[in-house]
Amino acid sequence: MTRIAFIGLGNMGGGMAANQAKAGHDVAAFDLSPAALERAAEAGCRTVASVAEAVKDAEVVITMLPAGPHVLGVYSEQIIGVAPASALLLDCSTIDVETARKVAGLAKEAGYAFADAPVSGGTAAADAGTLAFMVGCDEADFARVEPALDPMSRITIRAGDHGAGQAAKICNNMLLGISMIGTCEAIALAEKLGLEPERFFEIASKSSGQCWSVSNYYPWPGPVPTAPSNREYEGGFASAMMLKDLKLAQDAAAKAGATTPLGAQAEALYALFNGLGYGGKDFSAMVQMLRGRIDTLA
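Structure tokens predicted for 3-hydroxyisobutyrate dehydrogenase:
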């Protein structure tokens, strides 16, 4: 049994912490939300009143926080110097590469092993323990990182040194956002041309248009029963979170001097969709805006 501090019990973190408890670990869980703490307790975690209490005896510290400033603040002010120096620090948040490297530098300077380990898979995979982890860490530390993530993971890949996990996540989600828009556009065009979206799925999922957005997350009800399109686009990967990741990608592209015109267009479309008030809907709900049927999402 490993003593794990888990900080951040939102839509993703709650399921992740629950899987650590299910694996038999002693999970000291903290969140600012009383409701999140209650759910964690029901899932077998030991809830605590502060970050300091969670990390004081931890062998592994896992954080799942909203954005870079939260990660930097929590690590610099509440974890580093409070958790035992022998603890492994794992940040699973999706943040900018520079902040990830800054936190890693602070942690290493204080004698900690640290990894940025953002995830792919959404809330369903977080609940099922089948997330994909993209890890940035010192090569020598990966042997500790992989088993620590195992109860939450389908696959764990070391992307490279510190910050590489965030780079992989940002690029992956830019690709996902672009491919989902392409899938939604194709469905909208197929419908206008008299081709039923269900029949288009049968064709696209078995031909050169096949991609994850088609085969695993089809944005039209029916063909993929587990997709949020069958639940009125609830309970998946929120459009607001996709917009956040696309903004991170565009910021990174600007700083790196990379040309990402489709990423920029994807960001603009999701900014429009979010501005219309649908940030809480799954990102595949974009299909309704492109069909001109956004009224169906009310």
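The two ends are 47 Å apart (CA to CA).
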